[in-house]
Amino acid sequence: MSSSLISDFLHQTGGTAIIDGGLATELERHGADLNDPLWSAKCLISTPQSNLIRQVHLDYLENGADIITTASYQATIQGFKEKGFSDKEGENMLRRSVEIACEARDLYYERCAACSSGDKSDGRILKKRTILIAASVGSYGAYLADGSEYSGIYGDAITLATLKDFHRRRVQILADSGADLLAFETIPNKIEAQQAYVELLEEENIKIPAWFCFNSKDGINVVSGDSLVECGSIAESCKKVVAVGINCTPPRFIHDLILLLKKVTTKPIAIYPNSGETYDGDRKEWVQNTGVTNEDFVSYVSKWCELGACLIGGCCRTTPVTIRGIYKTLYNSQSATLATK
Q1: Who has the most CB within 10 Å: 1, 151, 175, 222?
Q2: Which of 85, 82, 104 is nearest to 45 (CA)?
Q3: Which helix or strand (DSSP H or E) is residue 69 part of?
Q4: CA 21, CA 251: separation in Å to the nearest integer?
Q5: pLDDT value at 25 more than 80
Q6: Which pairing describes strands 285-286 and 241-247: parallel, antiparallel, or unpaired?
Q7: What is the secondary structure of 270-328 as a DSSP string?
Q8: CA angle centred on 314, ends 54 and 128, rounded to 5°
Q9: What average pLDDT does the structure give for the chain?
């Protein structure tokens, strides 16, 4: 396992890199119906919908993303089984999520080569660079599809053994699928990070590195009420974890959360918040007009970088336009820095 993957990568990118934005919102914009417990992973079931995933990955790359996350956040063998698929079919769809991202990367590189041969880029960012594929691993709460990844409260019946058994095969499959790293996202509580994820990475001798990203609704703790400082310490103590951060959290909380993480981790900090909109778990829809504009979202980016974040992107309800704005901000900042040297 290359524990230096992210540090080497950041060295190549000049110190900061861009993660992609929301996947489900974009799939819906392309016509996908995601009103389903599988959410964006529903698109892994059919070829036409898989093509939509590839197109969204490509859109993000052409708007400046350096890291694309796979459509496996809510893809689980258990979830596919409830849809009538066999274990083997479920495993194949997990592998397919990584294959699609790799196809998008290859297609992007082809377009970069064609552009350098004289084709116009039509406003797209076609710049040959290292692109990483992050295999997304959602929490147990994401599989439940009841909004509990936003509470971290799974009930007394869910034990450490339950969580490890739930995640084990999926983590094995994704780690061996050709991804560059595992992205454990929207981690809502300490038990899932500490015992389930860390122990699985060690027990299964996972060969690729991972990042841990937590979510918060108060700017102090993770959503279950567990201390972010404690959760960050867990990630810091695991050699297989190469970056720590926050995702799917309103932008207004990020400043304080970065400062808390900086107290306990020396690892690169990843920040990819949602748009700040409120999700109604009962109605399974986003509450209109509760988030920030793209312009406001992007306006935070320079400050987050000043505080120490070096992997920046978006989560739910952010778009390729958001990522383009982040790219412009970071590119302008790097250009200004170089000009003063």
Answers
A1: 222
A2: 85
A3: strand 67-69
A4: 14
A5: yes
A6: unpaired
A7: EEE---SPPEETTTTEEPTT-S--HHHHHHTHHHHHHHTEEEE---TT--HHHHHHHHH
A8: 55
A9: 92
290 is written with which tokens? 């509760």
- Segment 317-340, tens digit of pLDDT: 899 999 999 999 998 766 555 444
Q: Locate all alpha helices (DSSP H) within the chain, ordered by sequence.
A: 5-13, 24-29, 47-61, 77-81, 87-116, 140-144, 160-175, 190-191, 199-203, 228-237, 254-264, 294-299, 301-307, 320-340
The tokens for 260 are: 């808390």
Does residue 264 come out as left (phi exceeding 0), alpha (psi in the -120 to 50 range) or beta?
alpha
Tell me, what amino acid is at 197? Y
Please tell me the distance from the alpha carbon of residue 313 to that of residue 16, in angstroms, as a whole number: 11
Q: How many whole angstroms separate alpha carbon 190 and alpha carbon 325?
A: 33
Task: Specify whether the CB–CB gap between 316 and 248 falls below 8 A.
Answer: yes
Query: What pLDDT band is residue 27 in, cutting at 50, 70 and 90?
Result: very high
Distance CA 220, CA 48 (A): 42
Whether the CB-CB separation of 252 and 235 falls below 8 Å is answered with no
| Range of 148-162, 197-211, 269-283 with top mean pLDDT | 197-211
Cα torsion 142, 145, 148, 149 to 10°: value is 20
**Residue 10, both tokens:** 């950041």
Token pair in block for residue 110? 């082809």
Place of tokens 């258990």: 78
d(CA 68, CA 21): 8
- Torsion of the alpha carbons at 126, 249, 278 and 221, rounded to the nearest 10: 180
Closest CA to 75 of 39, 103, 47: 39
Q: Which residues pair with 272 in a beta bridge?
A: 247
Tracing tokens 């297989």 back to the chain, one arrives at 240
Residue 93, classed as helix, strand or coil, is helix
Q: Token pair of 123, please?
A: 């406003």
Residues 6+ apart with CB under 8 A from 87: 77, 81
Q: Is the pTM of this model over 0.70?
A: yes
Nearest to 65 by CA among 126, 116, 106: 126
